């Protein structure tokens, strides 16, 4: 009796993982005869383009603020962004004085980021959706992390460099070690994604509603156990790091199978999308612990001196 039940559960989980892989990394048919197909040069050009759009967004925040506040001298609206606990305040907590146009841009870019995962594989507008996402990520990153970076800009720079090194490791292994991923690797990573990240998201959401029932109350208590939030945060970083391997593997598959050239936008965006998430959560971890990190660095430097 137990074995048929186990088999049904296993097959259901297998279908969910396969569906997730189809959604996040579609596997198209090879290009038709005479149709342009994916190339290494085209793939990296689009990856660099997406990275450039993030840089445009990073600078855009400061340029927009300078124009509307310093040049046009529009009145500012001050909003205090804060929450009740450390996990609700680490992202954008602080006091922000921006013009109403800047606030409007911020909410538009936030909406763009939140909707991108659901619409980036529509059969139209891939390049425009990806471009809008990258600019929005850059803009909101400057908005969210500038106040924290001002405490000690060196911490932000070092964290960014460490994050970029993490992103480069899979590339080096593929490029110079000719890494080939076993089929089970993708299934393990996707299973971890759905269980830990999606489960963690549901877990965190339920923890915001204590007292609405025994299940929500259980999650609320579990989420507030010492180290639970840090565990989920570090787990996100690890899973997105592993996802970069899958993204690079998919890029190679598209190139080797000569799939239609339009999928260069899909694969390159998927890589940049994953990299931005990894860097975001690395920065988030540092910001949450910035006081301890800065104190530790100063303590070590004083001992060395």
Please give the order of strands in the largest beta sheet: 1-2
Number of strands: 2
Helix content: over 70%
Number of domains as seen in the coordinates: 1
Could you give the order of the helices and strands?
A: HHEHEHHHHHHHH
Q: Main β-sheet, in a few words?
A: 2 strands, antiparallel
Q: What is the count of DSSP helices, taking H or I runs of 4+ residues?
A: 11
Computed structural class = mainly alpha
Give the low-pLDDT segments.
83-92
The fraction of residues in strands falls at under 5%
Rounded average pLDDT: 78
Alpha-carbon Rg, integer: 22 Å
Principal-axis shape equals: globular
Q: Roughly how many Å apart are the termini?
A: 69 Å
Overview of the structural elements:
- A two-stranded antiparallel ribbon has the order 1-2.
- The protein contains eleven helices and two strands, in the order ααβαβαααααααα.
- The chain has helices at 2-24, 40-71, 86-89, 100-119, 126-149, 153-176, 183-206, 214-223, 228-257, 263-288, 290-304; strands spanning 76-81, 94-99.
- It has one domain (40-299).
């Amino acid at each position: 009796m137990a074995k048929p039940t186990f088999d049904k559960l296993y097959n259901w989980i297998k279908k969910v993982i396969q569906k997730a892989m189809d959604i996040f990394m579609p596997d198209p048919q090879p290009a038709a005869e005479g149709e342009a197909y994916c190339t290494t040069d085209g793939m990296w050009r689009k990856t660099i383009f997406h990275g450039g759009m993030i840089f445009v967004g990073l600078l855009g925040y400061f340029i927009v603020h300078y124009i509307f506040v310093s040049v046009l001298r529009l009145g500012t609206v001050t909003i205090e962004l804060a929450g009740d606990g450390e996990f609700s305040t680490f992202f954008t907590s602080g006091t922000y004085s921006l013009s109403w146009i800047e606030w409007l841009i911020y909410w538009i870019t936030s909406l763009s980021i939140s909707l991108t995962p659901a619409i980036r594989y529509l059969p139209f507008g891939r390049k425009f959706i990806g471009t809008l996402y990258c600019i929005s990520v850059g803009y909101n990153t400057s908005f969210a992390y500038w106040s924290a970076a001002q405490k000690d800009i060196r911490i932000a720079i070092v964290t960014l460099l460490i994050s970029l090194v993490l992103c480069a490791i899979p590339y080096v292994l593929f490029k110079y070690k000719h890494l080939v991923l076993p089929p089970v690797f993708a299934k393990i990573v996707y299973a971890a994604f759905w269980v830990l990240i999606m489960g963690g998201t549901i877990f965190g959401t339920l923890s915001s509603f204590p007292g609405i029932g025994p299940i929500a109350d259980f999650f609320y208590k579990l989420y507030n156990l010492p180290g639970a939030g840090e565990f989920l945060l570090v787990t996100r970083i690890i899973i997105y790091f592993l996802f970069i391997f899958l993204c690079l593997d998919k890029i190679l598959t598209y190139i080797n199978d000569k799939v239609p050239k339009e999928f260069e936008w899909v694969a390159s965006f998927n890589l940049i999308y994953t990299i931005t998430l990894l860097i975001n959560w690395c920065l988030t971890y540092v910001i949450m612990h910035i006081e301890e990190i800065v104190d530790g660095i100063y303590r070590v430097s004083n001992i060395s001196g």
